[in-house]
Amino acid sequence: MRHFLSITEIDSLINLVSDARALKKSPFASKDLGRNKTLGLLFFNNSLRTRLSTQKAALNLGMDVMVMSFGKEGWALEYQDGTIMDQGTSEHIREAAQVVSQYCDVIAIRAFAGLKDKEKDEAELVLNGFATYASVPILNMESSLGHPLQALADAITLAEHSKNTKPKVVLSWAPHPKALPHAVANSFVEMMRQQQAEFIITHPKGYELNPAITEGVQIEYDQNKALKDADFVYVKNWSSYLEYGQVLQQDPDWMITQEKLGKAKFMHCLPVRRNVVVEDAVLDGHQSLVVEQANNRTYSAQIVLKKILEEIKE
Amino acid sequence: MRHFLSITEIDSLINLVSDARALKKSPFASKDLGRNKTLGLLFFNNSLRTRLSTQKAALNLGMDVMVMSFGKEGWALEYQDGTIMDQGTSEHIREAAQVVSQYCDVIAIRAFAGLKDKEKDEAELVLNGFATYASVPILNMESSLGHPLQALADAITLAEHSKNTKPKVVLSWAPHPKALPHAVANSFVEMMRQQQAEFIITHPKGYELNPAITEGVQIEYDQNKALKDADFVYVKNWSSYLEYGQVLQQDPDWMITQEKLGKAKFMHCLPVRRNVVVEDAVLDGHQSLVVEQANNRTYSAQIVLKKILEEIKE
Amino acid sequence: MRHFLSITEIDSLINLVSDARALKKSPFASKDLGRNKTLGLLFFNNSLRTRLSTQKAALNLGMDVMVMSFGKEGWALEYQDGTIMDQGTSEHIREAAQVVSQYCDVIAIRAFAGLKDKEKDEAELVLNGFATYASVPILNMESSLGHPLQALADAITLAEHSKNTKPKVVLSWAPHPKALPHAVANSFVEMMRQQQAEFIITHPKGYELNPAITEGVQIEYDQNKALKDADFVYVKNWSSYLEYGQVLQQDPDWMITQEKLGKAKFMHCLPVRRNVVVEDAVLDGHQSLVVEQANNRTYSAQIVLKKILEEIKE
Q1: Which Pfam families match (chains A, B, C) (predicted)?
Q2: What local confidence, expressed as pLDDT, does residue A139 receive?
Q3: Looking at chain C, which terminus has fewer C-beta neighbours within 10 angstroms, N or C?
Q4: Mean of all residue pLDDT scores within chain A
C-alpha cells in the first residue's frame, strides 16, 4: 500500500487481520525491515493510545521514531491555495509536507474534525494535504472522517473472539457530555461492511451517520431490540451529523448496562467516560474487550507499517 | 523488584549502591538486557534531570523509550471509583494504566503533590493508581510523597565521597519564595535511616516533616548547632507539613553560606535558587557535589531499571 | 571542532561542503560512530525542519536522541550572575548546562532573538551560557545571531547547483507581516564571505544588517539592479537592525516574482509566506531549491555531528 488513509482502501480485510494475528505472535520477527527507516508522528491533537501504540509498532519493526506535537511545537499551517499569507499562518502545507518527507520514510498524522464546519471537515485538509504533497507514504492516526487503525484493531479483536462465522455485531450510540467526532464510528462501519456478520447500528433519531457510509446497513432506533442476542456490542458516542457537530440529547437511558449487554462482548475504542457511556460493572467485568482492543492497536499499526515498508523496499 | 515506588522498599541499600557504582564503571555492559523492552515516561509535571537521566539510563540498558507530557498531550484522568464521568475528566486511571501497560514493559511516572489537600496528596492518586491497575512495573520519578531515584542517587554520592564509616550528615531546610513539596526531603530521610551515619535534621519550628517519616531521627532547631562538624550538608526547602503547603517564613538567615558550611560537602537535588537557598560561593566552590549528584541520577535509575528487567526476564 | 556556534568557526567551508556531499551519498556509513552517544535537543522556541533534520542526522550516525521543549517542559532559567533568585527563574544556567552535560554527549540549542533588547540578544545568553558552562560540545540550532546549520545547508545546495566557479548570488530582503530575527541572514552572509562568488545584498534603506557582519559586502538598494543576471536569489525577511526589531515597511513591491527571478535559482530557508515573500509561481516552479535546501539540513547537521563525534573519540 502507498498511503493508509481509510479502512476502505485495503485489498482484503480478512488477509490483513490474519497477517496481523501472525505478527502478534512474534512481534520482533521483522526488526530488520525498518532498519534506517524513520517514522514521523505528527500530532495536531492530543493522543495516548495512538501515540504509544504506533510508536511501539514502529519500534517492533526496527524503525526510528520522531514524535512532534505539531500544533504546539511547529508552525501554523496554511491549507488554502493562492492565499496571500499575511495573517496567522506561517507555512503552507505544500512546503510542510515536502519538507517532512525529506526526514521521514513514513509520516503518520492525527488531525481531528473541528465539528464547526462540515464542508471543511469533509475536505480533510490536513490528512489530504499531506497525502497530496508528501513524497512518502502517509498513515492516518485519526482524521476528521476516519480512524482506520482503530477499525483494524477492532477487526483483529473481533476475529480473536468470534465463536461463529457470522456473529451479530451492534454499533450502539451512547450519551456523552461533549460533541465528539464521527471518525471512529465511520471507520467501524466501513470495516464491518467488509465482514461476514449481522451488523446493526442503533442510535436515537437525529444521530444518523453520513448515509454514504452507512449505505445498506440496518439502522434500528430501538436500542433494546437492536441489542437482542448480540455477540458483540461496540459502543461509541458521536455528535449529530445532520445538525452538524451538535449534541442533540444525552439521554442516560442509552448508557450500556450489564443487563442490556446480556451475554455479548463489550467493545469501546477508549477513552471512555464511566457511568455515562457504560456502567462500571461492564468495564470491570469479564465480557469487556477494551484492553485487548487497545493491545491490538500495536498490531494494527504494525501490520500496516510492515506492508508500507515492504512496498518501499521493492 | 516489581514496582519501585519508595526508597523504603529496597532490600539492602548498601548492596544497591554498590551495584550502581559497579554499573557506573561500565554503563553499556548490559545493553542486551533491554533489547525489545520499552520504557514509557509519563510526566504530569515538568522535569529536566529526571527526564533526561531516566531516559539515558534506559538507553544505556538498550531499552527503547517513549516520553509523554501526559498532562499536555494526553487526556485528563479520573481517579475516583464509581464517579459519573460527565465533567472534566475523559479517562479513568483503571483504563489508562491497563492501556499503557499494553505498550510499555516498564512505566515511569512523575506526579507532584498539589499541596492544597494533604489527604489527597497522601493518597498518591496517580502513582498508586498506576501501581494498582498497571500490569507492568511502575517506577516513581517523584510523586507527592517521595523521590526515591533522587535519594538513591544521593546515597551513591554519599558513598563515593564518604571518608569515614559513620559520617555526620545534616539535612537543612532553606528558604524559598514558593511552596515546595516534601518528596525529596522525605525520601532523603528514609534513605538516611538505612545508612550508617550520624543524621540530623534542622529547620525552623513549624517545618517538621511527617513524624511517621522522621521517627527516631534527631531534629535540631538551631541550624548552627546542627551544622557543626558536619561531613555532608544536604540542603532543601519544603513547605510546612503541619500547616499543609504553607510558606510560614522565608528567613534569609537559613540560607547556606560558605561560612556555615565549614569543611562539609554541599548537596542539593537541583534546581536550586542561588543566593536564596545557598550562596554562589558554595555552588561554585569545590565542596559542592550537586553536579555529581545529578550525574548519579543516571546510575540510580539504571540500577533500578536493571533490577526490574532482570526480574521480568525470569 | 569543539562547539559549533557560528559558520565563521569552520576551518574550510569548501572541505566541509565536500565532506557533507560525500556523506549524503551514503548517510548510514558511519553508524558505528554514534553508538552509545546521546544528542540532547533543547528547544527554547518552536521548530519543524531543525528539529526533524537534526534528529534524523543523529539517527543516521547511530546516536540516541533526547528531545525537550525546554521552555514548556523544563524550568525557567536564570542567566545573570550574582542574582538573588527569588523571582520567576528556578535554575541558573550554570547548573542547567553542567547537569545536561551529564546525560548528553552533545547538546543542541535553539533560542531565538527576542528582538526587544539588542544588547541582550547580542549577548546570546542561552547559547553562550550553555557553551560556557557545559562540559560537552554545543551545537547551534539557531540563536539570536546566527543559524549556521542553515547556512551550511545552503552552501551544500549552492555547490550542488552551481554551474560556474564564481556564481552571482543575491540576498534579497522581502516583506513580512511580523518582525523576524536576523539569524538566517547573518549566517548566510558569513557563509557567502567564505565563498568564491559575486555576492550582493539588496534591501530597502533602514534594513541594513549589522555592519560588522556585512563588512566588505556590496549593498544595493535597487532590487531590480541587484537581481540582474543573478544565478541564485536567496530571499529572506528580517526586521530592522538599526531601529532594532522594528518592521519599518512591508512594501509588496519587494516580493519576489517569477519575472524578477529571471533565470536564477530561488532559495529560502522556510517557512515561507506565499504571495507575501514570494509568489506561488516561483515556489511551484522548477527554479525553486527550497525542498533541496530542507533536505540538505540533514547533511549539514550530520557532517557537523560527525566532526564533533570524531573529535570526542580522539
Answers
A1: OTCace, OTCace_N
A2: 98
A3: C
A4: 97
